[in-house]
Specification:
Number of strands: 8
Distance between the termini: 34 Å
Strand order of the largest sheet: 1-6-8-7
Radius of gyration: 28 Å
Strand content: 5-15%
Structural class: alpha+beta
Number of helices: 24
Largest sheet: 4 strands, mixed
Amino acid sequence: MAFHEPWFDEAQSWLIARDASFHDILLVRPHYEGHPPLWWLMLSIPAKLGVPYEIGLKGIQLACAALMAGLLIFRAPFPPVAVALLPFTYFMCFQYGVTSRPYALMCAAIFLVADCWATRDQHPWRLALSLTLLCCTSSYGIALACAVALVWVARTVLQARSLRALIADPHRFAAWLVLMVAGIVLTVCILPYPDTFGATPGANGNSIVAKFLMFWLVLPSESLFTSFAGDVSLHGMRLGVLPMVVCVVLSALVWAVLIRLAHRRGDLDILLVPYLLFAVCAVRYFSMHHLGILFALLVADWWIVLRDRPLEAADMPERLRLRIEGCGLFRRGGKGDPTSDAGSRWRNAAGVRNAAALRNAVIVVLLLPSLCWNVAAAACDVRYDYSGARAVASFVERNGLEHDRWVSFWRYFPETTWPDGSHTPRQEDTHRYSWAVIAANPYFDDFARGAAQDSARGSASGHVRGRVRDGSSHDAAHGLLDCTYRGRSYEPNQVPTAAQMNQEIKSCAAKGEPEFVIGDTDFPDYYFNRLGYRMRDYRKITIATKHTPWKTWVTTADITTYVRTDVLRALRLR
């Protein structure tokens, strides 16, 4: 975590927590971000108190990750080998432990729900409050909590064979009411507004039916064993025939084992209903970095199954059990007379040791892919720039460029007909900025405080940081970019109308040529023409190269910017 360089999503949350009002955090941003406000409220404590970016962000994340790992270590009913290894698997350690996002807290809430499930009727408030926490962590958490609550209520009614069972226990009924109110309020809070970015997925992708089937037949394998798909949206994920077959076979095996164990313990409903509702609700916007939620959900399923009844020989199909015994993995005889008490004890002890050794070997083999992914991703994160945010911020601060004008390319794709005959319409959104700059924005508040101190100490030397070349004012404490929607330091995720886009571009162009134009695009000519800038007045330079790991994959990309030639000459003279 100390080495990790925060990326766009991490910075976006910090910027919202730091720069948005509590009114917006509670009532506006959830509609555009798709998540309840709990994570921003937690980050707002250090952010609004002026705690340095990475210290504040990682401090909150460390507490959430420690809670998640602590529940696995001290409460999970797993064998010691599994308890020792699970916190170091890819999603538990790197994706949701190292990167600062609300999913560590969400996984902790899932584990709390699994731990409280067995005593739900004896201690209803424990489970209800755990489900309420799950609702507060994510929109996906609301769906999962709703499904668990439905199973809980249905079991209560079916076991008593009467609707009166709903109010038979006043404490449980009150817990249900509180949970229902929390779920409804949070659902209303995150309902997307019509102009929310991503309200409708792009064209030329997988159908809803295909994505739903992938949830059951591909994603379990991808969360546990295989790494065929990168960090892409489920809408745009493409797999070849062989990878698809491998994923289907492994996912089917996972479901076969879980369904058998759950069926023998009467837990099929708590296994399948949450997964079903999650698949229905998440299939529209699911991306592969959400796979850790599925991993945590599968861990929670094992948790519930084992808490109800530990594994036993009868859990294995009879043919498989007989084959294992026939291979000699379990000793049938003992020293001396096998019918004697000593021989029987020796035989049973040997059988237990062999069974434990086999169990531990199976656990290691099952978790080995995820452990390897974690090692590979952590090594890449330590060695290279993860997002390039520090490099961008350092470049700006080192050269005193905080108050120069930086303008970002925005989201633009021309109308395209692809070789397979498919067609995508023209797309443009001036509110989608360079991720590299958004990821670097949180550092400028720290730099601004340092600039004030440097100014007080160094003004006698004639150098005062913050001097603006064009005479305009630009508040570096609220982000590097100029020409953003209402001057915000974060992406608004609010899609403008065509008229609004044209007006924003016109207003930005009226300010004249900025010192820097930044962003990743295949169509630089389009932007320079739209803004009325002369491209020949700029030179393209590379600020940093980022290496972003996903399991054993590494995506490499340069962070580039167009620098006005007079500024570039001045930089080279320094």
